[in-house]
Amino acid sequence: MKKINVGLIGFGNVGSGVVKILRDKKAYLRDKIGIEINLSKICDKDITAKRNVKVDRALLTRNAEEIINDPKIDIIAELIGGIHPAKEYITAALKKGKSVVTANKALLAQEGRELFALAGDRNKNIYFEASVGAGIPIIKSLREGLVANKFYSIFGIVNGTSNFILSEMSENNRTFKDALGQAKLRGFAERDASLDIEGIDSAHKLALLTYLCFGRLVGLDEIFIEGISEISLADVNYAKELGFQIKLLAIAKKEGDELEVRVHPTLIPKNHLLSSVTGIFNAIYVSSDLAGNLLFYGPGAGQTCAASAVVADLVDLAKDIQSGLFRPTLNVVVDKSIRKLRKIDEIESRYYIRFMALDKPGMLAKISGVLAKFGISIASVTQKERHKAQVVPIVMIIHEAKEKNLRAALAEIDRLGAIGQKSIAIRMEEV
Ligand code: HSE
């Protein structure tokens, strides 16, 4: 029986999960795939910390080069995260003729062009199933299960921490700050939680999904990114009263010959499947020409689920190596019908808007006058409280409007004397 040797770089949370699976399921995997996946070496800068899995000390090293330069190692799994030295390790491993598995969404979103090109030059592959949606097999599904499809759109809840926070606000009436505290306590936020709450982690994942569906590895600077840190409990509750949930959505959507790629809090109808995705769960809703609309759902973070995806990649690569197969394109091709990326100013959307205005005669007329001037049509309006001569919330839903028109209208409204604070606008999607 063929034996494939794996070197693991990163013995942290996900790395420990991989070690555990490769140990506990060694025989199960061997029976299933007819190949022995052998963990030959594990590298981490800390090899003394207690972990929830026991390993032979002889496997441990602090020196990644011992893995990269070992000619017997066929695959490296990079699970340290971050850009450096992960990029250097992957580059060196590819140059030494090894295939690579990584969960590093930030690295692939930022440096993927160079790394995928290098892998292609060396007839090696980089697999990255764990980088989006943890154990949800979304990458393999897009690449293989849906290989004959063209894609229209992706709507993803791909950051568990943000989804947990918004769910806590909506279900348990917690403030943003309280809910973030809970998320940190549970330990699934990134080391730097701003990556989660400011939408960056979602954007990294969206870049990879967009690459798979539309063949373009868009740069982070080409993705419009807005996080959830400005979302107030009041808006979550007003949206709910109106029949909507607020979700942090990662959106890639074809509109004619343009592609919109954006991450932002979004109102979606309460009865849409994505609205019932709560807590740390992730879901990716994909529209395609042949298979139609599909929803991929599951826990979006956690040791075992992410490790499950890493092991799936190891198995795929082990099979490829055994059969001498190199998959040069990963089934990714450029969608040539897309001419350009649409700028956020040019998108058209419905919006939820909250004004904080003095409760006095004529205020609503003034606001709607400015909206009318910019061609913006109101779908519904509610004044939430009644405090004579004080600032009160006025909540509106507006029909489809161009973002730049809405921004210009809000800037003018915010300059009206009787407006107490900056107006809030949240985009809506029918999905
Ligand atoms: N911090 C990420 C999340 C972990 O909350 O979804 C998985 O990438």
Describe the protein's architecture and organization.
- The protein is an alpha/beta fold and 431 residues long.
- The protein folds into 3 domains: 2-134 and 303-323, 3-Layer(aba) Sandwich (Rossmann fold), CATH 3.40.50; 153-299, Dihydrodipicolinate Reductase, domain 2 (2-Layer Sandwich); 344-428, Alpha-Beta Plaits, CATH 3.30.70.
- The protein has 14 helices and 17 strands.
- The strands form 2 sheets. Strands 7, 8, 9, 10, 11, 12, 13, 14, 15, 16 and 17 form an 11-stranded mixed β-sheet that branches.
- It is elongated.
- The mean pLDDT is 96.
- Residues 134, 159-161, 188-190, 196, 201, 300-301 line the site of L-homoserine.
- At the first level of CATH, what is the class of the largest domain? Alpha Beta
What is the β-strand count?
Answer: 17
Mind summarizing the main beta sheet? 11 strands, mixed
Q: Termini separation (Å)?
A: 49 Å
The domain count comes to 3
Radius of gyration: 24 Å
Number of helices: 14
Q: Would you tell me which CATH topology of the largest domain applies?
A: Rossmann fold
Shape: elongated
